[in-house]
Each structure stands twice: as structure tokens, then as C-alpha cells.
Fold this protein.
Amino acid sequence: MSYRNKTYVIFDADTDRWAYGYMKGWKSNENMDFNFHDAHEIGPLTSNVSDETIKARLRERFSNAKQAIVLVGENTKNLRKWVPWEIEISQKLDLPIVVVNLNGKRQMDSDRCPAGLREWVAAHVEFKAKIIQYALDNFPSE
């Protein structure tokens, strides 16, 4: 069994990639106390492969994950392919899930939260480095 120390980040790659970019920027900024071991740094993923190949590579990333973040933007609840599949895999693996609202809400936003997470025990936080870091460090133990 591999050592599980990574954070798997789930997001709408079409509209919310900026938020994932911010998180990577916070991590690389030596003046910020923000760190996570990004599961997406494991192996390249190209767009010219089959869905089954993509799923196999994403499962490899999940195999190293100890937790998941779901970045929830305006369109996240309407996605029907990759985001719901990634949420389902996170749940099957019983990974702690931190839901990050990109609109600043500090609790579950029923207008934006994907259906698969509405009844799931998860930490729902706003998109701010300190609270995300706190959730990553302390959920689900607190």
C-alpha cells in the first residue's frame, strides 16, 4: 500500500481553474502559511486519451490521497461527468472532504453545492487560505 499524504483537489476545470491556481500560488509563497501535498502532481494527464485512461490515472492520484477538496463555483452543481465521479470516488474511499465555497460562504451553500455532497459529512469553508489550511489540518478530527 502506498503512503497516503496527498490532497486531491476537485474543481470545474473550465471555470474554476483560477482557484486551484491560487492554492498552488499560496503553497509556493514563502510568506504564507499554506501547504498541501497536491495529488495532481503525480504523472501527466493529456486530453487526447480515452475516458477509461483518464479514470485510471485519476485513480492512481486517489490512491495517494488522504483527503479531498472540492472547489465549488457557480457551475459546479450542474456538472455531470468528472466532478460527480471524483466526488463519488472520494466518498467510496472514505476520504475527508473539505468543500470550499468560491463565493465566500462559510457553510454549505445549497444553491451551489453538488447534490452528492449535500447529505455527506464535510467541512464547508470559504475560499481563504487560513481557513482552508485549518480545515485540511483539523477535519475530521475536530
